[in-house]
């Protein structure tokens, strides 16, 4: 048994040795013959550096700096154009004369309540006491006022009695003359904006809330620009929200500079700065819009007096215009009295004097304050502000 095992082991060893010889003979291969010479090896091109050309440089003739043609400066140089700013186009206000023609026709809408009613009553064959009472009622309803009404009726009575027979044209002439006496034709209604000894003219605009004061200031700037004047606007109404923005918009439309301050700031300070800048800029007129004050508030009225005093540290005020709403009637007279006590009113601006207004307020307010109506506003348009002309006003009331 042991002999058999030994024989098997010897056989395994012999087979393993024979396998190794076979594998080794297969792995052995002849080596290639050694090279007779060293081959030329070309190095790869180097990577280009900054400023170098990507291709392999070639030998070529090079010029010196003396041989290079330099530009002589005659070639055009490209200049970048500055950006064009989108500047809004300025309005060209309508001339004053052109506005008056259009405003006369609008003012004539007020004639129904006053002029036509009076002419109808005066045309009666017999003018008894009842008729004269009706005439008085029409005048009072038109806000002419008690004293002017009595004066007008007395004048009409005397002239009708002398005239006797009355034709429609004679009645119209008679009524026109009596109304012109009440309105006044010999009063200076010029808005003083051109002082002889200095520049600029200074105008302050006052009035209660809701009368169109800020709008009137903007429209007045348009009137002045239309007449060839330069204007600075002072937004001294620092209490009403957006009042300064509103005034600045009016100014931008006609190219007028606006001086403003912080909301709820000191209005006297804004007014002072507006006059100061107006003098530095050399403009013709400074318009100061003040806060719309309730005439019953004593403290606010005192502050209006302060604005006046501060402005006059620069120069005297040339004009103080009181803006009244013509539709308020006798209530406007109460406002006018209080303002006249605080500041020296020099002129009146009647706004909303269109077909809804009562034209007699012109007579009443002039009698109450002793100052003339200088400007009238007849609508919401930008150019609906014009100088007051007594003849045109009366003619519009009684009709052509």
From TrEMBL:
Which residue stretches belong to region Disordered? 25-59
- The name under which this protein is listed is Signal recognition particle receptor FtsY
Name the Pfam families for this protein. SRP54, SRP54_N
Main location per the UniProt record: membrane
Query: Which residues belong to any copy of the SRP54-type proteins GTP-binding domain?
Result: 372-385
Q: Which UniProt keywords apply?
A: Cell membrane, Cytoplasm, GTP-binding, Hydrolase, Membrane, Nucleotide-binding, Receptor
For the keyword Zinc, the answer is: no
Out of the domains of life, which is the source?
Answer: Bacteria
List locations, semicolon-separated: Cell membrane; Cytoplasm
Per the entry, what this protein does is: Involved in targeting and insertion of nascent membrane proteins into the cytoplasmic membrane. Acts as a receptor for the complex formed by the signal recognition particle (SRP) and the ribosome-nascent chain (RNC).
Renumbered to this chain, the Basic and acidic residues biased-composition regions fall at 49-59
What's the source species' lineage? Bacteria, Bacillati, Actinomycetota, Actinomycetes, Kitasatosporales
Membrane topology type: Peripheral membrane protein
